[in-house]
Specification:
The chain is an all-alpha fold. It has 8 helices and no strands. 29% of the residues are buried. The mean pLDDT is 93.
């Protein structure tokens, strides 16, 4: 049922119920589905992957803080320069982002901006791709085990 659900409110309810019932597998499945359905962009695109990451980090922060949390500065930057440029800046930054550290700590390396760069390497210069790979590897991530890009659906 979760895999077929496209209703964010129902998915959030499943997450809450699973958390109360300590059904970690149900909570995880509902969370993964939620971040898949929230972005309005074409599934499989770099933009869709970017917004999956934003929604995932916002969800984690909201749960930690007990209130809705949005990445206002990230969202403003995307309006100014776009998703690809934002990902490029994250990969080339001298320090990793808070989102990177949080997602790595929660065993979600495939949702980091750096993993998006690797999945969509054709959108980035080789130096950006190499910087993303290096940051992930320095964090102990086996980059060869990261999921391949999804095939965009029509």
């Amino acid at each position: 049922m979760i895999a077929a659900c496209d209703d964010p409110d129902k998915l959030r309810q499943w997450i809450a119920n699973a958390k109360r019932g300590r059904a970690k597998d149900v909570e995880e499945a509902a969370f993964r589905r939620l971040i898949e359905v929230l972005p309005k962009e074409q599934p499989g695109s770099v933009e869709h992957d970017f917004w999956r990451t934003v929604h995932a980090f916002e969800h984690v922060l909201s749960e930690e803080r007990g209130k809705t949390t949005r990445l206002a500065r990230t969202r403003q930057k995307v309006v100014r320069v776009g998703e690809v440029e934002t990902l490029k800046d994250w990969a080339l930054g001298t320090k990793s982002t808070d989102g990177f550290a949080t997602l790595i700590e929660r065993c979600m390396p495939e949702l980091t901006g750096e993993a998006i760069v690797l999945r969509h390497a054709d959108h980035f210069d080789a130096t950006v791709v190499e910087a993303a790979r290096k940051r992930l590897e320095e964090a102990g991530v086996d980059t060869a085990s990261l999921p391949a890009p999804a095939i965009p659906t029509s």
